[in-house]
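Reproducibility note. Readers wishing to regenerate the assembly model reported in the main text can use the exact inputs given here. Chain order matters: entities are listed in the order in which they were concatenated for prediction.
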Amino acid sequence: MTGPFNLDNYILHHLNDTDQWHLPFLPVINLPQHISLHGVMLFIASLILIYLFCFQYKKNERVPKGITNLLEIFVLFVRDQIAIAYLGKEDGRRMTPLFCTFFFFILTLNVMGLIPLFSTATANINVTAGLALITLSFMIFGAIYKNGLGGFFKAFIPSGVPGPVLLLLIPIEIVGLFIKSFALMIRLFANMLAGHIVILSLLGMVVLLGYAALPAVLLALLIYILEILVAFLQAYIYTLLSAMFIGQMYHPEH
Amino acid sequence: MSKDNLLVEGLEESIEHHDQPSGFINPDATMLFLTWITFFLLLAVLYKYAWKPILAALDHREKHIEDAVKNADQIKKELEEIDAKCRNLIAEAEEKSKALIERSKKAAHEAAKHIEQKAREESQILIENAQREIKNEVEKARANLRAESADIIVKLASKIIEENLDEEKNKKLINQYIREI
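Running the prediction on these inputs yields the following structure tokens for the assembly.
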């Protein structure tokens, strides 16, 4: 960067998706066309997950130890507390792979965002939009596949409501379907973005004000610790709400 | 490039902005597709090589644990039965041994009584024999005494006759001899 330090540019520079990957002591890596830095993060996260679950996870251990035990806690949690809890025993078991992938994919992307050198793909609205659209398509096409077209539309008619009210309620319910997915997208995106903006602002103050702003580093550290919690929390919330919304469409009577 | 329009549009858009950072909030179809491609590829790979075996293994283990718990319950029940049987057997054996001891005690008692009786009888016989012997001895002694006294009397008589003294003297003499004997 040339010229006087600009906090706005400093923050945006770190949040923006770029075509280059800056690594210390190494020449700048120019990424191939169409694959930006956040895209690379997606690939790295996938590779980490494939490495962990395909090669590190010992499937046939009778008493799981170490990394297997750690991962198994999360898998069991997603299966029992999220998938089966909101989709019922049969659908829940069948959908567990999807929710496990959601959870671990988002969690890995969130945590990678906290590690220097990597950037946060989940703070890119296009990534969260992609994920939310997957949830939306399950809410629509999964429900049509499961309940039939009639059953799918019946989900928008709440039972025990008089006719005239339905005129108002049905459009709201239909719009609600998209708003839910939209909220999913914004929630994950905004949460991941906000934390990073706070950390970058605090660190930027050091550059701006010099030693007078050193306490801000401590504050940034505290926010960073909070961000670790948020990384897990948002992965959990995204998975939970996806399961809840899909469950609502699959079993509309609840 | 013969891909569908939307994708081409998105790609063209991203190529246009290639020199600048593509941002984090600008709608960017490339990123969206990249997310989908990555996610579904990941889902497919993990489904085949991770989730399926992992979930199957979890189910298997849960079933195994359930069976083990059930088994443990059954074993516990069986153990209790065996324990009860064992206790019964011990009680029975105790009773039997008690009866046996009682019986042997009785037998011993009887044997002791028998032995005592016999001893008493034998000692009775011994005493009787001794008494009889004593009696015989006494009889013998008496007979001897009698014979001897007869002899003495004869001797005395002859002595008295030899002396030939008056009646009073005789009496005195007789008394004297008797004392002398």
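We highlight two features of this model. Helices of chain B lie at 5-16, 29-163, 167-180. The first helix of chain B runs from residue 5 to 16.
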